[in-house]
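Both lines are retained for reference:
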Amino acid sequence: MSIDVEALAATLDGAARDVRAIPKLTEAEPFDVATAYAVQRAVIGRRERRGERLAGVKMGFTSRAKMAQMGVDDVIWGLLTDAMLAGPSVEVSGLIHPRVEPEIAYLIGREVRSVADVESAVAGVAVGFEVLDSRFADFRFTLPDVVADNASAARFGVGAWHPPRDLANAGMVLEIDGRVAQTGSSAAILGDPARSLRAAARLALGAGITLEPGWVVLAGAATAAVPLPKDAHVRVTCAGLGAVEVTT
């Protein structure tokens, strides 16, 4: 059976724009991960044609437990656009079932031409957050579904940038309305978020995408994601990197 990549992209894009959960795409038409990435690129292409610009890369399945749960032996990735960058607030009514997680963010300072080049190309590091929003009903999906859905990307934010440093084991805290929701360590991100940074370069370059100056790489979550309610204040802190805050 021939898979209509553009039709699947239109379905996902429409679900996000209409704030409407849909069944897993693979329920109607099973497809492989390579096809899923083609759908992902087509979804991003639709956003670019509406005026959005690529702004970076986000990594997913960066914990060994999540890889085992999904039956994979490599991370997944998605693309960030400028429209996903959150300001001081995120309007959760425009999302289907948002969840938030603490992140380590890298700022790319110059074009990355190889995996070996990526760490020296980092201009800054920051604590960040990502708001996830699977377009699938009940936040349930197969591996090809979540890849096609741009790894559940929705919004992201970063705190103040700091000079590059070792972040192999930095303590992180996610608070909602002043109460601790999650605690963890950057070591949960592949043992060291720098490994996720290198994986981002490997996967992007393999797909013909060059990490550009000014782009952000979200290395992955240090804890499980938690539901993001309306009228909430979120604060993420990381040892040595300060904090980033957002309201809903």
Summary: The chain has a mean pLDDT of 94. The first strand starts at residue 54 and ends at 60.
